[in-house]
Please model this.
Amino acid sequence: MNNLLSIKNSYAFLKYIPDQLLEEYLKTKTMNIKTYSKDEIIHFDGDKCTYVEHILSGKVVIERIDESGDLLTITEFYPDDILGGNLIFSKNSYYPMTVTAKTDTSLLVIQKDTLFELCSTNPSFLRQFLEYISDNALLLGAKIKYYVNRSIRESIIAYIRNEHKLQNSNKIVLQSTKKALADRIGVQRTSLSRELQKMKNDGLIDFDAVSITIVDVSILA
Model:
């Protein structure tokens, strides 16, 4: 408890909660800290959201199972992010996807009534909370739409177009591993490699372990 009180001002949300009030919440267990080991499930698809969780440390991912039974990463959350903020006051407050700890993770659990009390009595906290869930809903919605509505080839081309603009070159230097790229566009690494090879055979690109070269510039249109 003392450790959290000493570092709370480094978190965007907790710094708006007075020390004495945070200490009271921790003592009465309306807030409590939970820890998860690497790859431990935090919430299953369909679990009811009855509280929010503020990430104190670690990395958390939202995942879904595709039609082939593969587990795909949709988005990632880091310290100072909140889990369940867009669900907690919903009439349909169920997690639509699996939430997993990708590293050892520490979460501050905030009960629904406590969150409502903070939002009702603390305008600074309320503003921070509303800004966060609004921005996060837009980002998460865009990522889900990105993965669900696009084919693998369309996702690869979208990535190439974006990197072409950033790097100003027809030779795209990969900023991460192919596994990380596969996670970013929501497919398995084998599926990504297979589609890259098809695109090479179709004369659209060439590629090696560290780069993708645009052969047919029409994909940039």
